[in-house]
Specification:
single chain; BTB domain-containing protein; globular
């Protein structure tokens, strides 16, 4: 055993002992009424989040309260920090992944990803795992899931729980290259899913007049470009212009992301006009100006002479647009008047 490994073992034994008299602990966590003692150096060296948490500015000497996790799960997390080992189970893996993400411990997240990549995924559990872990960066897990779907012929749209799954998971399913179901079957199931979502919205709505078709359309609009061949089968939901716009996006869509000062992103798709795309790419990482709460970027481009074909819609909250002087702006749909809409 190397000296480094021996030192790690000694630190871990000291942590395991939880002996306040001889353990030289300088920080404590209160989890569900129980205390866990630790060392600031061990925590600060592995995570910027933990470093800020145990700093003198944050920590005034009182135990730091942990509300979101169980005592057992948080103890396992600290065990990994001290020893590089952790006991993963089907019961705790979701909490472990969330701990790794919240405290930004990349090595722990990778270990979670490795554990998930070795699991067996079936029609009974695949949507549960996809739904619970869709917001985390777990490339090995995602690769293993889609490999299992392909090799085991798992028809996700026929699986239990599909009707309750999130739009994010539905989008991943329709984007999957190795579909084992027909596009027509996929459209029928997704239409059924959208109708189910709309019905739940109707039950929660306080409006006396509820337009079911509009609600279904809102659920489907982002999804349909990926299954466009069967859009016309439910053409009564969409006007000619709306169908045209959806099908236009199928061919060469470009995704634009704008991030606000709080780090919250908003996404949109626009047609692949080379001049407009080049203009927006030139603004990469550029902070916006602000006028009366409306963000804008000085670009001074020539606004297209042809009128924009894009029209305002109730289900789209924010739009990118050109001012008539050629600057790029972004505004809520209620503030859009007589400008060249991009998306």
């Amino acid at each position: 055993m190397s000296d480094n490994c021996q030192h790690c073992d000694e630190r871990f034994k000291m942590f395991q002992s939880q002996d306040q008299e001889n353990g030289f602990f300088d920080v404590s966590f209160e989890v569900k009424g129980k205390l866990i003692h630790a060392h600031k150096f061990m925590l600060a060296s592995i995570s910027e989040v933990l470093k800020r948490m145990v700093s003198d500015t944050w920590n005034n000497g009182e135990p730091i309260k942990i509300e979101a996790y169980s005592f057992k799960d948080f103890s396992e997390f600290l065990k990994f920090i001290y020893s590089g080992k952790c006991s993963f189970t089907d019961e705790n893996i979701f909490s472990m992944v969330d701990l790794s993400e919240f405290y930004q411990v990349k090595s722990f997240q990778h270990r979670c990803d490795q554990f998930l990549s070795k699991k067996v995924y079936t029609a009974e559990n695949v949507l549960v795992f996809l739904g619970s872990l869709s917001n985390y960066s777990l490339p090995l897990f995602e690769k293993a899931v889609w490999k299992a779907v392909k090799e085991n012929g798992i028809n996700l749209v026929e699986s239990d729980g599909f009707m309750e799954t999130s739009k994010e998971i539905v989008m991943k399913i329709v984007k999957c290259k190795n579909k084992i179901f027909s596009e027509e079957n996929l459209f029928e199931k997704i239409y059924e899913w959208a109708k189910n979502q709309a019905q739940k919205e109707q039950e929660e709505s306080k409006e006396k007049i509820f337009n079911m078709n509009d609600a279904i359309e809102c659920e489907l609009t982002e999804i349909l470009p990926y299954i466009h061949r069967f859009v016309v089968k439910k053409g009564f939901l969409f006007s000619y212009d709306e169908l045209s716009e959806i099908l236009d996006f199928v061919y060469s869509p470009v995704t634009v992301k704008v991030i606000n000062s709080k780090g919250q992103p908003i996404f949109g798709m626009l047609l692949n006009d080379s001049a407009i795309v080049a203009n927006i790419k030139s603004l990469y990482n550029n902070k916006s100006m602000s006028s009366r709460g409306t963000p804008w970027w000085p670009t001074n481009v020539k606004v297209p002479s042809t009128q924009s074909t894009l029209k305002k819609r109730d289900d789209v909250e924010w739009y990118l647009f050109y001012y008539f002087n050629g600057d790029l702006g972004m505004a809520h749909r209620t503030a859009i008047h007589n400008i060249y809409l991009l998306k």
